[in-house]
Design goal:
Blueprint (H helix, E strand, L loop, with lengths): L2 E9 L2 H17 L3 E5 L14 E7 L2 H8 L5 H10 E9 L2
Antiparallel strand pairs: 1-3, 1-4, 2-3
Helix pairs in contact: 1-3
Length: 95
C-alpha cells in the first residue's frame, strides 16, 4: 500500500536549503520514493494553517518510507535541511 510523507517547511537559510534540494532527490529515489508535490502555490480553505513550503512524497510502503528517513544516505542530507529550515511532517497510508 502506498505511503505518503507530507511536510511543511519554513526555510530560514535559502542558500543552504538549495544545497539540500540538490542532494535529496537521489536519496528518495534509492528508496523507491518520488515527489508528488515540491513547493508550489497553496490554498488553505479551512482552519488556521500557515503553510510555507509543502512537500509530498510517495513511497510504495511505510516500510520503505521509514527506511529512507532512517538511512545512512539521507542522514547527512537531513542535517543540511535541519540547519536551514524548520519543518513539520507526518506520514499517512494511501487507499
Amino acid at each position: 500500500m502506498a505511503y505518503y510523507l507530507i511536510a511543511d517547511i519554513d526555510i530560514h537559510d535559502s542558500e543552504t536549503y538549495a544545497e539540500y534540494q540538490k542532494l535529496v532527490p537521489t536519496t528518495i529515489e534509492q528508496y523507491d520514493g518520488r515527489y508528488l508535490v515540491r513547493g508550489g502555490e497553496t490554498f488553505e480553505p479551512t482552519g488556521a494553517w500557515d503553510l510555507q513550503r509543502v512537500v509530498m512524497l510517495e513511497f510504495p510502503s511505510k516500510k520503505r518510507a521509514l527506511e529512507w528517513e532512517q538511512s545512512s544516505e539521507y542522514a547527512p542530507v537531513k542535517a543540511i535541511r535541519e540547519s536551514a529550515s524548520k519543518s513539520r511532517a507526518f506520514g499517512v497510508e494511501g487507499v
